[in-house]
Amino acid sequence: MANREILKEWVDAFNSENIEAIMELYADTAALCLVAKYPVIGIGRNSIKKIYRWLFSSGRKTCLPKNIFEDGDNLILEWKDIEGFYACEVIQFSCNKIISQRSYQEKLPHLKFEQLSFQSN
Prior knowledge:
Elements (H helix, E strand, L loop, with lengths): L2 H13 L3 H5 L2 E10 L4 E4 L1 H13 L6 E8 L2 E7 L5 E9 L2 E9 L16
Parallel strand pairs: 1-6
Antiparallel strand pairs: 1-2, 3-4, 4-5, 5-6
């Protein structure tokens, strides 16, 4: 499967808040970092799953892709939400799985990173 196809699956699963479908796209040892004032980092699928549960509990987001850039096994997705949330995902793939994702957000309403702790299991 091509990386762009995996990205499309990620967008569809994200928009439907289907955590199980999202998790199928990540390698077992993948890393997800929400880059903000206080970064939230998840290593491994269990930790990443907790991050998505938390993200979806903070209010519905709809990923509307604006730009996709590809460089080998890396994709950059610029997207926005209908509420004005902007983000950029830098995703690295290997063997048809996401192995690393850094998410840069322009604004993070209602989120309190100081109170979060996601540990690898």
